[in-house]
Amino acid sequence: MSGACQTLALLNKKVIPIAVSADKGPIGPPAGADAEMISLYESHKKIYPRSVSGLFSKWRWGMVFLTQLVFYGVPWLEWGQRQAVLFDLGARRFYIFNLVLYPQDFIYLTGLLVISAFSLFLFTAVAGRLWCGYTCPQTVYTEIFLWLEKLAEGDRSARMRRDAGPLTFDRFWRKSAKHGMWLAVALWTGYTFVGYFTPIHTLGHEIAALNMGSWEIFWTLFYGFATYGNAGFMREQVCKHMCPYARFQSAMFDRDTLIVTYDEKRGEPRGARSRQSDPLALNLGACVDCSLCVQVCPTGIDIRKGLQYECIGCGACADVCDTVMDKLGYARGLIKYSTENAIDKQWTQSQTLRHIFRPRVLIYTAILGSVVIAMAVSLALRSPFKVDVERDRGSLARIVDGGKLENVYRLQIMNATEATQTLHISVSGLPSILLASDPDVVVESTQSRWVPVRVQVPYEGAEPGSYKIEFSVSANGLAPEVSEKSVFIVPR
Predict the structure, then answer these.
(1) What is the CATH number of the domain that holds 390?
(2) For residues 306 and 2, is the Cβ–Cβ distance under 8 A?
(3) How many whole angstroms separate alpha carbon 365 and alpha carbon 359?
(4) Are residue 325 and residue 403 in the same domain, yes or no?
(5) Separation of alpha carbons 316 and 314, rounded Å
(6) Tens of pLDDT along 374-397?
(7) Are strands 448-458 and 99-101 parallel, antiparallel or unpaired?
(8) Which domain-ending residue is among 329, 352, 382?
């Protein structure tokens, strides 16, 4: 039964309220009525996930290694004379390998967010909560912290036994070792996170010299202790109560979405039996009711009750169920990745896959592919420099030597490459218009420079008014050329 169905069942249940008297305590229900005391708040029970091995477990640990290799390794990569990936907020520049992005390149961040959103829609429509089960930071760090917990305190049964017993020296040193390892991983994670915004080598020297900035200290500790608290203590509570994705995932699901599913027709009625027993003779299904699927679940749900919003799609229950089926000599797949339609209609694997690629999935794929191609083309054709034009408001139109009318402008030229650029400035838009200042400007690599520019026209060359003009800037007089429009003021 899903979470929504459970809620409806609770609402539909006939409950007789019990009044409470200050003198006599609870007052019983009317005679002949059934009463049930319902607590609105359920105390949280700690979940001790059991270790499991299998296909999906291997995939999950593979993604743990891959994501953490990227996260912890990328800040240490060098590109030329700088860090390969660095978000320099002070200088307002983002360095991503050979790309240098400025605040004016905000459109690319928008494109990245659109790609992320449609990727989430596509993956969810195809195979449910793949992100949650394999690559979400909460899942990844919970797996790491659980591994460290097992390393220090033993397996599930040993941890439960120690936690239920008194505080002994053995329990104390094991807990201390566990928390020490957790804190080390968490603080290293915070240090790495800040290393994306402050060069990580510089940050290391600042820590060694005890000379970190206040914001660097704050974000290192904040991110570190957030990792420590979320992965070490809150764990499944983050997925169940704090993550919004668990609440709106059903909007992207349909009956042809691959989810972790229990084959009720094959498994029921469930019950214990020996290996030699014939389940048909005992009128039993394939499920032996061992509850291992509940013990390995990181959120503590029973997948046999159907799809629930707490399920993160990690496949741990499928792995452990397959091991039980192997021991009993039954066919695998009592719990597996499948669709609701495939389970109900007993489709083959090829039939299931054919129904996965339905119109919704094809539309998401087409939109995602279009956005990715558009963004890649835009980045490939991106100009190596940018130009902004501002009229000098402190200097209005004026008559200068030679009987010419002059307007003054300020050009902000940003060099988006890592090589010094010699740029040529020209202007057009009015007859006999000319650039009175030096047309050639040198801009250092990844630097921005304000350049004052004087533009002149003959005094009798235009009637009073405002005229559109255009500045063109090219690298060494060659393409690509960047143009920016402005106005030339002819006073009365």
Answers:
(1) 2.60.40.10
(2) yes
(3) 10
(4) no
(5) 6
(6) 999 988 888 888 888 888 777 778
(7) unpaired
(8) 382
Closest CA to 4 of 337, 341, 306: 306
pLDDT confidence of residue 490: 86
Distances (CA, A) of 77 to 67, 71, 333: 16, 11, 44
Who's near 321: CB < 8 A, 6+ residues apart?
292, 293, 334, 335
Which contacts qualify for 100-109: CB closer than 8 Å, 24 or more apart? 100/416, 100/417, 100/418, 100/446, 101/416, 102/386, 102/414, 102/416, 102/448, 104/386, 104/388, 104/414, 108/375, 108/378, 108/379
Residues 360 and 453 in one domain: no
For the chain, give the percent of residues with pLDDT over 90.
47
Q: How confident is the model at residue 33 (pLDDT cuts 50, 70, 90)?
A: low
10-19, 303-312, 448-457, 466-475: least confident range: 10-19
Question: What is the per-residue pLDDT for 6?
Answer: 42
**What does the buried/exposed string (b/e) look like for 405-434 if buried means 16 or more CB atoms within 10 Å of the residue's CB?**
bbbbbebebbbbbbeebebbbbbebbeebe
